[in-house]
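Review form for a predicted model. The reviewer records the input and the model, then writes brief findings.
Reviewer: anonymous (R2)
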Amino acid sequence: MIRAFFRSLWHVLSFLWTALDASRRIFFNLLFLALLAGLLAALYYNRPPHVEPRTALVLDLKGALVEQHATPVGSLTLTGLDGALEHHDVQLRDVLQVLDEAARDPKITSVVLMLDDLQAAGMPVLHEVSAALERFKARGKPVIAWGAHYDQRQYYLAAHANELYLDPMGQVELEGFGHYRNYYRDALDKLGITVHVMRVGTYKSFAEPFIANGPSPAALEADRTLYEALWRSYTQDVEQLRHLPGDSLQQAIDTLPQSLAAAHGDTARLALDQHWVDGLKTRNDLRQLMQAKGATDSEHKTFRQISFEDYLSLQNESHKGKAIAVIVAEGEITDGTAPAGSIGGLTLSRLIRDARQDDDVRAVVVRVDSPGGSVYGSELIRRELALTREAGKPVVISMGTLAASGGYWLSLGADEIVADPDTVTGSIGVFALVPTADRLAEKLGIHTGGATTTWLSGSHHPLRPLDPRFAALIQSSVSHVYDEFMTRTAAARKTTTQKIDAVAQGRVWTGRQALVRGLVDRTGSFEDAVHEAASRARLGQAYHLHYMDPEPTGLAQWLQRLDGALPALARADLPARLQAVLPWLQDDSARDAATLMNRLSTLSSDPAHFMTVAHCLCQAP
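Model under review:
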Protein backbone atom coordinates (compact mmCIF):
# COMPACT_ATOMS: atom_id res chain seq x y z
CA MET A 1 0.00 0.00 0.00
CA ILE A 2 2.73 2.44 1.01
CA ARG A 3 4.81 1.36 -1.99
CA ALA A 4 1.90 2.06 -4.33
CA PHE A 5 1.44 5.54 -2.77
CA PHE A 6 5.05 6.50 -3.30
CA ARG A 7 4.96 5.10 -6.84
CA SER A 8 1.93 7.30 -7.64
CA LEU A 9 3.61 10.30 -5.99
CA TRP A 10 6.74 9.68 -8.09
CA HIS A 11 4.66 9.62 -11.29
CA VAL A 12 2.96 12.91 -10.34
CA LEU A 13 6.26 14.61 -9.51
CA SER A 14 7.85 13.27 -12.71
CA PHE A 15 4.95 14.67 -14.72
CA LEU A 16 5.22 18.06 -13.02
CA TRP A 17 8.98 18.19 -13.55
CA THR A 18 8.58 17.27 -17.23
CA ALA A 19 5.92 19.95 -17.65
CA LEU A 20 8.09 22.54 -15.88
CA ASP A 21 11.11 21.64 -18.01
CA ALA A 22 9.04 21.83 -21.19
CA SER A 23 7.63 25.23 -20.15
CA ARG A 24 11.16 26.52 -19.49
CA ARG A 25 12.33 25.40 -22.91
CA ILE A 26 9.30 26.89 -24.62
CA PHE A 27 9.78 30.24 -22.81
CA PHE A 28 13.45 30.57 -23.70
CA ASN A 29 12.89 29.39 -27.25
CA LEU A 30 10.17 32.00 -27.70
CA LEU A 31 12.44 34.64 -26.20
CA PHE A 32 15.25 33.60 -28.55
CA LEU A 33 12.90 33.71 -31.56
CA ALA A 34 11.67 37.16 -30.52
CA LEU A 35 15.22 38.46 -30.25
CA LEU A 36 16.10 36.91 -33.59
CA ALA A 37 13.03 38.49 -35.18
CA GLY A 38 14.03 41.83 -33.71
CA LEU A 39 17.56 41.57 -35.12
CA LEU A 40 16.24 40.60 -38.56
CA ALA A 41 13.81 43.52 -38.45
CA ALA A 42 16.68 45.79 -37.50
CA LEU A 43 18.72 44.61 -40.47
CA TYR A 44 15.74 45.26 -42.74
CA TYR A 45 14.92 48.70 -41.36
CA ASN A 46 18.49 49.86 -40.83
CA ARG A 47 18.58 52.09 -43.87
CA PRO A 48 20.49 55.36 -43.81
CA PRO A 49 18.30 58.49 -43.63
CA HIS A 50 17.66 60.21 -46.93
CA VAL A 51 18.07 63.97 -47.32
CA GLU A 52 15.77 65.59 -49.84
CA PRO A 53 16.08 69.11 -51.26
CA ARG A 54 14.80 72.00 -49.10
CA THR A 55 15.28 70.09 -45.87
CA ALA A 56 15.65 71.76 -42.47
CA LEU A 57 18.22 70.42 -40.02
CA VAL A 58 16.58 70.22 -36.58
CA LEU A 59 19.33 70.73 -34.01
CA ASP A 60 17.47 69.05 -31.15
CA LEU A 61 20.29 68.76 -28.64
CA LYS A 62 19.48 66.60 -25.62
CA GLY A 63 21.54 66.36 -22.46
CA ALA A 64 24.85 67.93 -21.51
CA LEU A 65 27.14 69.35 -24.17
CA VAL A 66 30.50 67.71 -23.50
CA GLU A 67 33.92 67.35 -25.10
CA GLN A 68 33.82 63.54 -24.93
CA HIS A 69 31.29 60.86 -24.05
CA ALA A 70 31.97 59.47 -20.59
CA THR A 71 32.13 55.95 -22.03
CA PRO A 72 31.96 54.77 -25.67
CA VAL A 73 28.35 53.64 -25.31
CA GLY A 74 27.62 54.47 -21.70
CA SER A 75 25.72 57.56 -22.80
CA LEU A 76 23.08 55.54 -24.59
CA THR A 77 19.71 54.82 -23.04
CA LEU A 78 16.52 53.24 -24.23
CA THR A 79 13.57 55.32 -23.11
CA GLY A 80 9.86 55.16 -23.53
CA LEU A 81 7.64 52.40 -24.82
CA ASP A 82 8.29 53.33 -28.44
CA GLY A 83 11.96 52.39 -28.21
CA ALA A 84 13.33 55.88 -28.77
CA LEU A 85 17.12 55.89 -28.46
CA GLU A 86 18.67 58.93 -26.86
CA HIS A 87 22.03 60.18 -25.61
CA HIS A 88 22.55 61.40 -22.08
CA ASP A 89 25.03 63.89 -23.53
CA VAL A 90 26.14 65.33 -26.84
CA GLN A 91 29.73 65.58 -28.03
CA LEU A 92 30.81 69.03 -29.12
CA ARG A 93 32.77 67.55 -32.03
CA ASP A 94 29.57 65.97 -33.39
CA VAL A 95 27.64 69.24 -33.27
CA LEU A 96 30.42 71.11 -35.07
CA GLN A 97 30.75 68.40 -37.71
CA VAL A 98 26.99 68.37 -38.36
CA LEU A 99 26.69 72.16 -38.64
CA ASP A 100 29.73 72.55 -40.88
CA GLU A 101 28.61 69.74 -43.18
CA ALA A 102 25.06 71.13 -43.28
CA ALA A 103 26.48 74.52 -44.28
CA ARG A 104 28.07 72.87 -47.33
CA ASP A 105 25.09 70.64 -48.14
CA PRO A 106 22.85 72.27 -50.79
CA LYS A 107 19.91 70.14 -49.66
CA ILE A 108 19.97 71.65 -46.17
CA THR A 109 18.42 75.09 -46.41
CA SER A 110 17.98 76.04 -42.74
CA VAL A 111 18.62 75.05 -39.13
CA VAL A 112 15.91 74.88 -36.49
CA LEU A 113 17.25 75.13 -32.93
CA MET A 114 15.22 73.10 -30.43
CA LEU A 115 17.06 73.54 -27.13
CA ASP A 116 14.53 72.66 -24.43
CA ASP A 117 16.45 69.50 -23.51
CA LEU A 118 19.94 71.00 -23.64
CA GLN A 119 21.41 70.81 -20.16
CA ALA A 120 24.85 71.64 -18.81
CA ALA A 121 27.31 73.43 -21.09
CA GLY A 122 30.24 75.70 -20.31
CA MET A 123 30.45 79.08 -22.02
CA PRO A 124 33.53 78.13 -24.09
CA VAL A 125 31.63 75.12 -25.45
CA LEU A 126 28.67 77.37 -26.32
CA HIS A 127 31.10 79.73 -28.07
CA GLU A 128 32.20 76.86 -30.32
CA VAL A 129 28.62 76.01 -31.29
CA SER A 130 27.83 79.70 -31.78
CA ALA A 131 30.77 80.06 -34.17
CA ALA A 132 29.51 77.06 -36.16
CA LEU A 133 26.03 78.63 -36.34
CA GLU A 134 27.59 81.84 -37.65
CA ARG A 135 29.50 79.86 -40.29
CA PHE A 136 26.19 78.29 -41.32
CA LYS A 137 24.51 81.70 -41.55
CA ALA A 138 27.44 83.03 -43.59
CA ARG A 139 26.36 80.64 -46.38
CA GLY A 140 23.09 82.58 -46.63
CA LYS A 141 21.11 79.94 -44.74
CA PRO A 142 18.84 81.06 -41.89
CA VAL A 143 18.75 79.76 -38.32
CA ILE A 144 15.37 79.68 -36.58
CA ALA A 145 15.13 79.06 -32.83
CA TRP A 146 12.03 77.96 -30.95
CA GLY A 147 11.64 76.95 -27.32
CA ALA A 148 9.02 76.27 -24.71
CA HIS A 149 11.45 78.07 -22.41
CA TYR A 150 15.08 79.19 -22.47
CA ASP A 151 17.50 79.00 -19.60
CA GLN A 152 20.60 81.19 -19.68
CA ARG A 153 22.77 78.80 -21.69
CA GLN A 154 20.02 77.80 -24.11
CA TYR A 155 19.24 81.46 -24.73
CA TYR A 156 22.86 82.25 -25.56
CA LEU A 157 22.70 79.84 -28.52
CA ALA A 158 19.19 80.93 -29.49
CA ALA A 159 20.35 84.56 -29.62
CA HIS A 160 22.43 83.65 -32.68
CA ALA A 161 19.28 82.78 -34.66
CA ASN A 162 17.94 84.96 -37.44
CA GLU A 163 14.48 84.46 -35.95
CA LEU A 164 13.93 83.66 -32.27
CA TYR A 165 10.54 82.44 -31.07
CA LEU A 166 9.11 81.52 -27.67
CA ASP A 167 6.01 79.55 -26.72
CA PRO A 168 3.21 81.87 -25.48
CA MET A 169 3.39 80.06 -22.12
CA GLY A 170 7.18 80.14 -21.95
CA GLN A 171 9.86 82.31 -20.40
CA VAL A 172 13.48 83.42 -20.74
CA GLU A 173 15.41 82.77 -17.53
CA LEU A 174 18.40 85.10 -17.17
CA GLU A 175 19.92 85.20 -13.70
CA GLY A 176 23.62 85.94 -14.04
CA PHE A 177 26.61 83.98 -12.73
CA GLY A 178 27.71 83.05 -9.22
CA HIS A 179 26.74 80.76 -6.39
CA TYR A 180 26.58 80.50 -2.61
CA ARG A 181 28.53 78.01 -0.53
CA ASN A 182 27.63 76.43 2.78
CA TYR A 183 30.09 76.87 5.65
CA TYR A 184 30.42 74.17 8.30
CA ARG A 185 32.88 75.44 10.92
CA ASP A 186 30.36 75.72 13.76
CA ALA A 187 28.69 72.42 12.85
CA LEU A 188 32.04 70.61 12.75
CA ASP A 189 33.02 72.16 16.10
CA LYS A 190 29.81 70.84 17.64
CA LEU A 191 30.53 67.40 16.24
CA GLY A 192 34.12 67.49 17.44
CA ILE A 193 35.71 67.28 13.98
CA THR A 194 38.70 69.41 13.01
CA VAL A 195 39.80 69.93 9.40
CA HIS A 196 43.50 70.76 9.13
CA VAL A 197 44.43 72.65 5.96
CA MET A 198 47.88 72.81 4.41
CA ARG A 199 48.04 74.97 1.34
CA VAL A 200 50.08 77.36 -0.71
CA GLY A 201 48.01 80.04 -2.38
CA THR A 202 46.04 82.87 -0.80
CA TYR A 203 43.13 82.21 -3.14
CA LYS A 204 42.93 78.41 -2.69
CA SER A 205 39.55 78.80 -1.02
CA PHE A 206 38.12 75.30 -1.37
CA ALA A 207 38.83 74.45 2.27
CA GLU A 208 37.22 77.60 3.68
CA PRO A 209 33.77 76.02 4.22
CA PHE A 210 35.40 73.56 6.65
CA ILE A 211 37.44 76.07 8.65
CA ALA A 212 35.32 79.25 8.59
CA ASN A 213 31.73 80.46 8.77
CA GLY A 214 31.96 82.65 5.70
CA PRO A 215 34.16 83.47 2.71
CA SER A 216 37.45 85.26 3.21
CA PRO A 217 37.96 88.71 1.65
CA ALA A 218 40.43 87.14 -0.82
CA ALA A 219 37.88 84.53 -1.91
CA LEU A 220 35.16 87.14 -2.34
CA GLU A 221 37.48 89.35 -4.38
CA ALA A 222 38.51 86.50 -6.67
CA ASP A 223 34.94 85.23 -7.15
CA ARG A 224 33.55 88.70 -7.80
CA THR A 225 36.25 89.49 -10.37
CA LEU A 226 35.72 86.20 -12.18
CA TYR A 227 31.92 86.26 -12.27
CA GLU A 228 31.67 89.91 -13.24
CA ALA A 229 34.04 89.31 -16.16
CA LEU A 230 32.05 86.32 -17.35
CA TRP A 231 28.72 88.10 -16.98
CA ARG A 232 30.03 91.14 -18.83
CA SER A 233 31.13 88.89 -21.69
CA TYR A 234 27.74 87.15 -21.78
CA THR A 235 25.63 90.31 -21.72
CA GLN A 236 27.74 92.11 -24.31
CA ASP A 237 27.47 89.17 -26.70
CA VAL A 238 23.70 88.82 -26.31
CA GLU A 239 23.06 92.57 -26.54
CA GLN A 240 25.07 92.75 -29.73
CA LEU A 241 23.34 89.73 -31.26
CA ARG A 242 19.85 90.97 -30.34
CA HIS A 243 20.63 94.62 -31.18
CA LEU A 244 19.84 95.70 -27.61
CA PRO A 245 21.21 98.78 -25.85
CA GLY A 246 24.31 98.32 -23.71
CA ASP A 247 23.64 97.16 -20.13
CA SER A 248 19.99 96.52 -20.99
CA LEU A 249 20.09 92.93 -19.69
CA GLN A 250 21.41 94.03 -16.30
CA GLN A 251 18.84 96.81 -16.11
CA ALA A 252 16.05 94.39 -17.05
CA ILE A 253 17.02 92.05 -14.22
CA ASP A 254 17.31 94.94 -11.76
CA THR A 255 13.75 96.08 -12.58
CA LEU A 256 12.30 92.59 -13.17
CA PRO A 257 9.67 92.68 -10.38
CA GLN A 258 8.18 95.91 -11.71
CA SER A 259 8.38 94.82 -15.38
CA LEU A 260 6.74 91.47 -14.74
CA ALA A 261 3.98 93.11 -12.72
CA ALA A 262 3.37 95.50 -15.62
CA ALA A 263 3.07 92.47 -17.91
CA HIS A 264 0.50 91.00 -15.48
CA GLY A 265 2.84 88.12 -14.68
CA ASP A 266 3.05 87.00 -18.32
CA THR A 267 6.71 85.96 -18.69
CA ALA A 268 6.40 85.36 -22.44
CA ARG A 269 4.95 88.83 -22.99
CA LEU A 270 7.76 90.26 -20.85
CA ALA A 271 10.37 88.55 -23.08
CA LEU A 272 8.69 89.99 -26.16
CA ASP A 273 8.44 93.48 -24.65
CA GLN A 274 12.16 93.37 -23.76
CA HIS A 275 12.94 92.30 -27.39
CA TRP A 276 14.58 89.13 -26.11
CA VAL A 277 12.49 87.20 -28.67
CA ASP A 278 11.03 88.06 -32.06
CA GLY A 279 7.61 86.54 -31.53
CA LEU A 280 5.42 84.16 -29.58
CA LYS A 281 4.54 80.97 -31.42
CA THR A 282 3.19 77.58 -30.52
CA ARG A 283 4.85 74.44 -31.83
CA ASN A 284 2.14 74.23 -34.49
CA ASP A 285 2.82 77.85 -35.51
CA LEU A 286 6.49 76.93 -35.93
CA ARG A 287 5.51 73.93 -38.05
CA GLN A 288 3.47 76.11 -40.38
CA LEU A 289 6.21 78.73 -40.57
CA MET A 290 8.80 76.14 -41.59
CA GLN A 291 6.47 74.63 -44.17
CA ALA A 292 6.14 78.06 -45.75
CA LYS A 293 9.93 78.57 -45.68
CA GLY A 294 10.86 75.12 -46.97
CA ALA A 295 8.83 72.13 -48.05
CA THR A 296 5.99 70.07 -46.62
CA ASP A 297 6.42 66.49 -45.50
CA SER A 298 3.01 65.18 -46.50
CA GLU A 299 3.51 61.79 -44.89
CA HIS A 300 4.17 63.18 -41.42
CA LYS A 301 2.10 66.37 -41.82
CA THR A 302 5.03 68.65 -40.95
CA PHE A 303 7.93 70.43 -42.62
CA ARG A 304 10.66 68.49 -44.40
CA GLN A 305 13.36 67.89 -41.80
CA ILE A 306 16.16 65.70 -40.55
CA SER A 307 17.20 65.37 -36.92
CA PHE A 308 20.65 66.00 -35.53
CA GLU A 309 21.16 62.29 -34.74
CA ASP A 310 20.07 61.14 -38.21
CA TYR A 311 22.24 63.70 -40.00
CA LEU A 312 25.18 62.78 -37.79
CA SER A 313 24.80 59.13 -38.84
CA LEU A 314 25.47 60.19 -42.45
CA GLN A 315 28.85 61.70 -41.63
CA ASN A 316 32.08 59.80 -42.12
CA GLU A 317 35.48 60.64 -40.64
CA SER A 318 38.43 60.47 -43.00
CA HIS A 319 41.31 58.27 -41.84
CA LYS A 320 43.71 58.71 -44.76
CA GLY A 321 46.61 61.05 -45.29
CA LYS A 322 48.17 63.68 -43.07
CA ALA A 323 46.39 64.17 -39.78
CA ILE A 324 46.23 66.39 -36.74
CA ALA A 325 45.58 64.23 -33.71
CA VAL A 326 42.97 65.63 -31.31
CA ILE A 327 43.20 64.29 -27.77
CA VAL A 328 40.52 65.25 -25.26
CA ALA A 329 41.57 65.81 -21.64
CA GLU A 330 38.23 66.14 -19.87
CA GLY A 331 37.41 65.55 -16.23
CA GLU A 332 39.27 64.78 -13.03
CA ILE A 333 42.96 63.82 -13.26
CA THR A 334 44.15 60.61 -11.61
CA ASP A 335 47.50 58.83 -11.70
CA GLY A 336 46.75 55.66 -13.65
CA THR A 337 44.22 54.51 -16.20
CA ALA A 338 40.78 56.04 -16.72
CA PRO A 339 37.96 55.64 -19.25
CA ALA A 340 36.83 58.29 -21.70
CA GLY A 341 35.27 61.28 -19.96
CA SER A 342 37.94 61.39 -17.26
CA ILE A 343 41.73 61.71 -17.29
CA GLY A 344 44.15 58.99 -16.30
CA GLY A 345 47.80 60.03 -16.37
CA LEU A 346 48.86 56.70 -17.88
CA THR A 347 45.90 56.54 -20.27
CA LEU A 348 46.37 60.00 -21.76
CA SER A 349 50.16 59.62 -21.87
CA ARG A 350 49.70 56.45 -23.92
CA LEU A 351 47.42 58.27 -26.38
CA ILE A 352 49.97 61.07 -26.77
CA ARG A 353 52.74 58.53 -27.29
CA ASP A 354 50.65 56.73 -29.94
CA ALA A 355 50.13 60.04 -31.74
CA ARG A 356 53.86 60.77 -31.59
CA GLN A 357 54.71 57.38 -33.09
CA ASP A 358 52.05 57.56 -35.83
CA ASP A 359 53.71 58.67 -39.09
CA ASP A 360 50.41 60.10 -40.41
CA VAL A 361 50.03 62.40 -37.41
CA ARG A 362 51.92 65.65 -38.02
CA ALA A 363 50.68 67.69 -35.03
CA VAL A 364 48.72 67.27 -31.80
CA VAL A 365 45.91 69.41 -30.38
CA VAL A 366 44.91 68.70 -26.78
CA ARG A 367 41.45 69.94 -25.84
CA VAL A 368 41.51 70.56 -22.08
CA ASP A 369 38.43 70.73 -19.88
CA SER A 370 39.65 69.83 -16.40
CA PRO A 371 39.65 71.33 -12.89
CA GLY A 372 42.80 69.34 -12.08
CA GLY A 373 43.55 66.54 -9.65
CA SER A 374 46.65 64.40 -9.28
CA VAL A 375 49.93 66.27 -9.68
CA TYR A 376 51.70 63.08 -10.72
CA GLY A 377 49.09 62.34 -13.39
CA SER A 378 49.34 65.92 -14.67
CA GLU A 379 53.14 65.67 -14.80
CA LEU A 380 53.02 62.39 -16.74
CA ILE A 381 50.92 64.07 -19.42
CA ARG A 382 53.11 67.19 -19.52
CA ARG A 383 56.21 65.04 -20.03
CA GLU A 384 54.67 63.18 -22.98
CA LEU A 385 53.66 66.44 -24.61
CA ALA A 386 57.21 67.76 -24.15
CA LEU A 387 58.62 64.59 -25.74
CA THR A 388 56.23 65.03 -28.67
CA ARG A 389 57.50 68.57 -29.20
CA GLU A 390 61.09 67.33 -29.07
CA ALA A 391 60.20 64.72 -31.72
CA GLY A 392 59.34 67.57 -34.08
CA LYS A 393 55.54 67.40 -33.86
CA PRO A 394 53.87 70.66 -32.80
CA VAL A 395 51.61 70.55 -29.76
CA VAL A 396 48.84 73.12 -29.23
CA ILE A 397 46.55 73.31 -26.22
CA SER A 398 42.93 74.37 -26.75
CA MET A 399 41.40 75.33 -23.42
CA GLY A 400 37.69 74.69 -23.05
CA THR A 401 35.45 75.37 -20.08
CA LEU A 402 38.04 74.62 -17.37
CA ALA A 403 41.82 74.35 -17.54
CA ALA A 404 42.76 75.03 -13.95
CA SER A 405 45.31 73.73 -11.46
CA GLY A 406 46.35 70.28 -12.76
CA GLY A 407 44.57 71.13 -16.03
CA TYR A 408 46.91 74.10 -16.38
CA TRP A 409 49.94 72.06 -15.25
CA LEU A 410 49.58 69.52 -18.07
CA SER A 411 49.18 72.37 -20.58
CA LEU A 412 52.72 73.56 -19.88
CA GLY A 413 54.09 70.90 -22.26
CA ALA A 414 52.69 72.62 -25.37
CA ASP A 415 54.21 74.92 -27.99
CA GLU A 416 51.23 77.25 -27.69
CA ILE A 417 48.22 77.66 -25.40
CA VAL A 418 44.98 78.95 -26.95
CA ALA A 419 42.27 79.75 -24.39
CA ASP A 420 38.66 80.66 -24.95
CA PRO A 421 38.03 84.19 -23.68
CA ASP A 422 35.78 82.73 -20.96
CA THR A 423 37.90 79.71 -20.03
CA VAL A 424 38.41 79.40 -16.27
CA THR A 425 42.14 78.80 -15.95
CA GLY A 426 45.13 79.36 -13.68
CA SER A 427 44.61 78.26 -10.06
CA ILE A 428 48.34 77.65 -9.68
CA GLY A 429 48.29 76.38 -6.13
CA VAL A 430 48.37 73.22 -4.02
CA PHE A 431 46.47 72.10 -0.93
CA ALA A 432 45.88 69.17 1.40
CA LEU A 433 43.08 68.46 3.86
CA VAL A 434 43.53 66.26 6.93
CA PRO A 435 40.36 65.81 9.00
CA THR A 436 40.64 64.50 12.57
CA ALA A 437 37.81 63.49 14.90
CA ASP A 438 39.62 63.13 18.23
CA ARG A 439 37.14 65.44 19.99
CA LEU A 440 34.23 63.45 18.54
CA ALA A 441 35.84 60.24 19.77
CA GLU A 442 36.16 61.76 23.25
CA LYS A 443 32.47 62.71 23.27
CA LEU A 444 31.52 59.17 22.26
CA GLY A 445 33.84 57.57 24.77
CA ILE A 446 36.13 56.06 22.14
CA HIS A 447 39.80 55.76 23.10
CA THR A 448 42.86 54.73 21.09
CA GLY A 449 46.16 53.31 22.24
CA GLY A 450 49.00 51.06 21.14
CA ALA A 451 52.72 50.75 20.49
CA THR A 452 54.64 51.86 17.38
CA THR A 453 58.28 51.69 16.38
CA THR A 454 58.39 55.32 15.13
CA TRP A 455 56.35 58.43 15.71
CA LEU A 456 55.29 58.39 12.02
CA SER A 457 53.43 55.11 12.30
CA GLY A 458 49.87 56.05 13.17
CA SER A 459 50.64 59.75 13.29
CA HIS A 460 47.71 60.46 10.96
CA HIS A 461 45.15 58.32 12.82
CA PRO A 462 41.79 60.09 12.33
CA LEU A 463 40.70 59.56 15.95
CA ARG A 464 43.86 61.08 17.43
CA PRO A 465 45.01 64.71 17.45
CA LEU A 466 47.10 65.58 14.41
CA ASP A 467 50.79 65.25 15.22
CA PRO A 468 52.46 68.65 14.54
CA ARG A 469 55.42 66.85 13.01
CA PHE A 470 53.14 65.12 10.50
CA ALA A 471 51.45 68.44 9.71
CA ALA A 472 54.91 69.92 9.07
CA LEU A 473 55.71 67.07 6.65
CA ILE A 474 52.56 67.71 4.65
CA GLN A 475 53.12 71.47 4.57
CA SER A 476 56.71 70.96 3.36
CA SER A 477 55.52 68.67 0.59
CA VAL A 478 52.74 71.06 -0.45
CA SER A 479 55.21 73.95 -0.56
CA HIS A 480 57.62 71.87 -2.66
CA VAL A 481 54.90 70.96 -5.18
CA TYR A 482 53.92 74.64 -5.41
CA ASP A 483 57.54 75.58 -6.11
CA GLU A 484 57.69 72.91 -8.81
CA PHE A 485 54.47 74.24 -10.30
CA MET A 486 55.82 77.78 -10.46
CA THR A 487 59.20 76.66 -11.82
CA ARG A 488 57.60 74.71 -14.66
CA THR A 489 55.19 77.55 -15.39
CA ALA A 490 57.95 80.16 -15.46
CA ALA A 491 60.06 78.01 -17.81
CA ALA A 492 57.14 77.34 -20.15
CA ARG A 493 56.00 80.97 -20.14
CA LYS A 494 59.58 82.28 -20.46
CA THR A 495 59.42 84.47 -17.38
CA THR A 496 60.45 84.42 -13.72
CA THR A 497 58.94 82.57 -10.78
CA GLN A 498 58.44 85.90 -9.03
CA LYS A 499 56.18 87.14 -11.83
CA ILE A 500 54.29 83.84 -11.90
CA ASP A 501 53.85 83.90 -8.12
CA ALA A 502 52.23 87.32 -8.39
CA VAL A 503 49.42 85.90 -10.59
CA ALA A 504 49.34 82.43 -9.05
CA GLN A 505 48.47 81.88 -5.37
CA GLY A 506 45.64 79.58 -6.40
CA ARG A 507 43.67 82.31 -8.15
CA VAL A 508 41.56 81.53 -11.21
CA TRP A 509 41.26 83.83 -14.21
CA THR A 510 39.20 84.05 -17.37
CA GLY A 511 40.99 83.41 -20.64
CA ARG A 512 41.09 87.16 -21.34
CA GLN A 513 42.57 87.87 -17.91
CA ALA A 514 45.07 85.03 -18.27
CA LEU A 515 46.29 86.47 -21.58
CA VAL A 516 46.97 89.85 -19.98
CA ARG A 517 48.93 88.10 -17.21
CA GLY A 518 51.01 86.00 -19.59
CA LEU A 519 49.53 82.63 -18.66
CA VAL A 520 48.30 81.83 -22.19
CA ASP A 521 49.53 82.79 -25.65
CA ARG A 522 46.29 83.93 -27.20
CA THR A 523 42.52 83.74 -26.94
CA GLY A 524 40.61 81.89 -29.59
CA SER A 525 38.49 78.91 -30.51
CA PHE A 526 39.22 75.24 -31.01
CA GLU A 527 39.35 75.96 -34.74
CA ASP A 528 42.02 78.60 -34.09
CA ALA A 529 44.07 76.02 -32.20
CA VAL A 530 43.76 73.56 -35.08
CA HIS A 531 44.84 76.19 -37.60
CA GLU A 532 47.82 77.06 -35.40
CA ALA A 533 48.85 73.40 -35.24
CA ALA A 534 48.49 73.06 -39.02
CA SER A 535 50.55 76.20 -39.57
CA ARG A 536 53.34 75.00 -37.28
CA ALA A 537 53.37 71.64 -39.06
CA ARG A 538 53.27 73.36 -42.49
CA LEU A 539 50.22 71.34 -43.55
CA GLY A 540 48.31 74.04 -45.42
CA GLN A 541 44.78 72.69 -45.99
CA ALA A 542 45.83 69.11 -46.72
CA TYR A 543 44.99 67.40 -43.44
CA HIS A 544 42.14 65.86 -41.47
CA LEU A 545 41.35 65.68 -37.77
CA HIS A 546 41.89 62.34 -36.09
CA TYR A 547 40.23 62.10 -32.67
CA MET A 548 42.06 59.69 -30.40
CA ASP A 549 39.93 58.35 -27.55
CA PRO A 550 40.76 55.69 -24.95
CA GLU A 551 39.99 52.20 -26.19
CA PRO A 552 37.15 50.49 -24.31
CA THR A 553 37.82 47.19 -22.60
CA GLY A 554 35.72 44.27 -21.39
CA LEU A 555 31.97 44.85 -21.41
CA ALA A 556 32.35 48.37 -22.80
CA GLN A 557 34.17 46.96 -25.84
CA TRP A 558 31.38 44.46 -26.47
CA LEU A 559 28.76 47.18 -26.12
CA GLN A 560 30.62 49.37 -28.60
CA ARG A 561 30.23 46.68 -31.22
CA LEU A 562 26.47 46.81 -30.66
CA ASP A 563 26.43 50.60 -30.81
CA GLY A 564 25.61 50.70 -34.49
CA ALA A 565 22.82 48.13 -34.16
CA LEU A 566 20.98 49.79 -31.27
CA PRO A 567 19.54 52.72 -33.31
CA ALA A 568 18.33 50.22 -35.88
CA LEU A 569 16.58 48.20 -33.20
CA ALA A 570 14.85 51.34 -32.01
CA ARG A 571 13.72 52.30 -35.52
CA ALA A 572 12.42 48.77 -36.05
CA ASP A 573 9.88 49.34 -33.24
CA LEU A 574 11.25 46.50 -31.16
CA PRO A 575 8.67 45.66 -28.46
CA ALA A 576 9.28 47.43 -25.18
CA ARG A 577 9.38 44.16 -23.29
CA LEU A 578 12.51 43.18 -25.24
CA GLN A 579 14.15 46.50 -24.40
CA ALA A 580 13.67 45.68 -20.74
CA VAL A 581 16.33 43.00 -21.23
CA LEU A 582 18.87 45.87 -21.29
CA PRO A 583 18.00 47.95 -18.20
CA TRP A 584 21.64 48.52 -17.42
CA LEU A 585 21.87 50.90 -20.37
CA GLN A 586 19.68 53.32 -18.44
CA ASP A 587 21.91 53.48 -15.38
CA ASP A 588 24.14 56.53 -14.85
CA SER A 589 25.41 55.23 -11.54
CA ALA A 590 28.60 53.82 -13.03
CA ARG A 591 29.57 57.19 -14.47
CA ASP A 592 28.61 59.05 -11.31
CA ALA A 593 30.50 56.58 -9.14
CA ALA A 594 33.58 56.87 -11.35
CA THR A 595 33.52 60.65 -11.09
CA LEU A 596 33.12 60.46 -7.32
CA MET A 597 35.93 57.94 -6.93
CA ASN A 598 38.24 60.05 -9.08
CA ARG A 599 37.69 63.02 -6.78
CA LEU A 600 37.99 60.98 -3.61
CA SER A 601 41.22 59.39 -4.80
CA THR A 602 42.89 62.81 -4.79
CA LEU A 603 41.78 63.37 -1.20
CA SER A 604 42.61 59.89 0.01
CA SER A 605 43.55 59.10 3.57
CA ASP A 606 46.89 57.87 2.21
CA PRO A 607 49.43 60.53 3.28
CA ALA A 608 51.10 60.34 -0.14
CA HIS A 609 47.99 61.77 -1.74
CA PHE A 610 47.98 64.75 0.59
CA MET A 611 51.20 65.83 -1.09
CA THR A 612 50.04 65.69 -4.71
CA VAL A 613 46.74 67.54 -5.03
CA ALA A 614 46.58 70.35 -7.59
CA HIS A 615 42.86 70.89 -7.96
CA CYS A 616 40.86 74.09 -8.21
CA LEU A 617 37.72 72.34 -6.93
CA CYS A 618 35.83 74.93 -8.95
CA GLN A 619 32.85 74.71 -11.26
CA ALA A 620 32.30 76.67 -14.42
CA PRO A 621 29.45 79.17 -14.05
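Findings: The mean pLDDT is 84.
Further findings: Residues 335 and 376 are 6 Å apart (CA to CA).
Recommendation: see findings above.
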